[in-house]
What does this fold into?
Amino acid sequence: MNASQRFDRYMEHLADGLGHIDRHAGLKGYCTGLMLPLSRKSVEPMAARMDPLHASARHQSLHHFVAKADWSDKDLLRRVSQWVVPKMDLSGGGFWIIDDTGFPKQGKHSVGVARQYCGVLGKQDNCQVAVSISLATEQASVPVAYRLYLPKEWAQDRERCRKAGVPAEVRFGTKTEIALQQLETLLAEGAPKYCVLADAGYGVNQRFRQRLTDMGLPYVVGITWSVVVWPPGLAPLPPKPYSGTGRRPVMPRRTRARKPVSVKDLSHALSASAFQTIHWRQGTNEALSGRFAAVRVRHAGGNSGRARLRPEQWLLIEWPEGDADPLKYYLSTLPEDIPLSELVAQAHMRWRIERDYQELKQELGLGHNEGRGWRGFHHHVTLSIAAYGFLVTERLAAGKSVGTKKNSVVSQVAALPEDYIPRGSSARTATRIRLNHHDQVPAQLSFDSAPRPMSVLRAK
It folds into this structure.
């Protein structure tokens, strides 16, 4: 069976969850368009590339499928997972990687758009932001949950939400709350309790970390330098003795001589011998390595002294040689006997979701949706993930770690037909001598050509 036949089988598998049979053509057409080498993967250029002689009709059908048709994103993502996950090597366990990504936008009418932090731009700007969870192994990863973050100014404006098609049951939730809800749904559906990875945007939230522990999920999460902990060998005094009246005291006590410190101050107090150089993965040109130390600490719950005594966990510190301060800090509830090299390797597995986003945006048009509505946004994202899922399985079958080599050859962008006129342009008359129906060949995916090398970071 060649790749083209496998793609058809994959489309049939996904189409079984769409309901009406007339949606099957839309699914295959849209995923095909996302996988073509186009510079812009919104509906109009995809339609023009796939069916130049009937671009307008194809545009309308694809637009209806992605923006109007009432099919379930959740069901389609589940079918993507059913196809991809069995082909991933989970014999050594997996990871749930939480992250969010931004889509710069102009104007104010696209659903969820607001002035907020955009990771793509590295600053506050007008954008949409979505929260996702990926299932990852050392060789591959695939997004399994995805939802648009709705800022308060949107969530509190019900008329604005109605115009954008936001479901009535959707209310404001922080990004950490959205991520926790996604995890709870996955676990309720029988997903394994793998280690959770997240950056400091999530890791600094004590309630988020506690909820992961309550769900039985170990974690390695980033934190900022200001997080306060009890250093090794130091703990707060027990609560005051019970007087016999009122509530029994439960809060640990601090004194001037016995108090927690910031993770930055703790790092500076460690001796140089506490740090080791650890190689955690093979990079494009050389092994990736860094200088790390790990100590057992208790989170102190802030500076007020009113937090209860927390269990011990790992504080992992990454401090490059010669830098004035550490580069990164992590808290982890992985086992106490875990080797430092393994702790470091798991902390750095977050590169997988960064690679997901890079490929989804650069190769599969994740950020090219031009619709304004809730349904269209999520349908486009789901179909981008569906196309990505097929590429993941093809690379796994070829024995490749899923990624993109830094020096890989970039595909040539497919040109639109010479006589193609974008919507809104002045019409022009084509001369008969140039009109040749035999020259207009529908777009085809080149599955049988030699695959492009796709691994920037080879698995360890």
Observations:
- Residues 219-234+257-332 form one domain.
- Confidence is low (pLDDT under 50) at residues 404-442, 448-460.
